[in-house]
Amino acid sequence: MLNPMHIIVTGADGALGAAVIHGLNEAGHRVAALCGRLPLSPGLGFFAAGDLADEANARVVITAAAEWLGHVDGFIHLAGGFLWSETGSATLADWRAMFDANVATAVASATVALHHLQDGGAIIFVGAHSSQPANVGFGPYGAAKSGVARLTEALAAESRPRRIRVNAILPAIIDTPRNRADMPDADPSTWTKPEAIADVVAFLISPAARAITGALLPVTNAA
């Protein structure tokens, strides 16, 4: 690769994060991986994420990752959370938890990343295909992911002067071991594999997607 990118990835220890990290490394990019739990042999490039909804912590961790990289071409925010809860039984704490896990982590992390991101760089968030319209049990989660969508659109418009592209992927059900365990009666052949979504992420973060910004891109095909 003539011009490998320097990329920060949050949520790197999840099923999707692992697939994204693997794909980027295979392509020759330099990646700083922010993890909830560090691997047993973390090696270079792995950072303990801590609470990314905490602005002070996000500033410390992402700055450390940026300094390790030397410069930052892309920021991929995969960290988030999920809760199925019907509105009648969900508490305000449930709504706040979903906001913190999905919106607050994205805002706190991206705000710091922007200070380190090169002009012409790219940011990718993870929304949810289930957020609009939200179905039964998807009130708190759907509302939070709708917030991520609005963040994506606003930040894309605000970042145009620096030619920074901001997009979000909208997965449905991802074929992960956790989802298979949680939904044993479902048919996983209709779900999307992490590797297929990782291919889309790799495209969106690359200069090949230079004409795309402010997009909310469904990644829901059974692939």
UniProtKB/TrEMBL annotation:
InterPro entries noted in UniProt: NAD(P)-bd_dom_sf (IPR036291), Sc_DH/Rdtase_CS (IPR020904), SDR_fam (IPR002347)
One GO term (biological process): fatty acid elongation
Coiled coil: none
Pfam hit, one: adh_short_C2
GO molecular function per UniProt: oxidoreductase activity, acting on the CH-OH group of donors, NAD or NADP as acceptor
Signal peptide residue numbers: none
Domain of life: Bacteria
Family, as annotated: Belongs to the short-chain dehydrogenases/reductases (SDR) family.
Name of the protein described by the UniProt record: SDR family oxidoreductase
Species of the source: Sphingomonas carotinifaciens
Lineage: Bacteria, Pseudomonadati, Pseudomonadota, Alphaproteobacteria, Sphingomonadales
